[in-house]
Write a structure and sequence with these properties.
The protein is of the alpha+beta class. It is 26% helix and 30% strand. It is built from one helix and six strands. The strands form two sheets. It has a four-stranded antiparallel beta sheet, with no helix packed on it. Strands 1-6 form a two-stranded parallel sheet. The N and C termini lie far apart (57 Å).
Length: 110
């Protein structure tokens, strides 16, 4: 199973920080450096929070996930089924119902 990470090409290291949170670093974490990151909350429609983290020699560096397990294909999102339901409902509201109304009005003028 692949893990969806938005804008995957902008990050060099991705790891699972906790349940429902993926942290993506712009650079590979190294000792005695500060690295910018973005936390994605996958259970909350991939809302993100930016920040930076400093690593010292006393902190264990995160283990990056293998790139073959990561993808930026939209089909792997956790909320893809919800997106499809909303899309179908919007199509009904904006296309099907106005078309039915228009056809009924057009039929009366014949």
């Amino acid at each position: 199973m692949k893990i969806y990470v938005p804008d995957l090409e902008n990050y060099e290291c991705v790891y699972v920080r906790g349940e429902g949170v993926i942290r993506a670093y712009k650079e590979r974490p190294q000792n005695n450096r500060t690295v910018d990151y973005r936390d994605y909350y996958i259970d909350s429609n991939y809302i993100f929070v930016d920040g930076e983290q400093s690593f010292s020699q006393y902190i264990t560096l995160p283990v990056c996930l293998d790139e073959s397990n990561l993808t930026n294909e939209v089909y792997y999102r956790n909320d893809f089924d919800s997106i499809l339901v909303i899309f179908i409902c919007l199509c009904l509201i904006f296309f099907y119902f106005p078309l039915k109304i228009f056809l009924r009005l057009f039929r009366r003028f014949n």
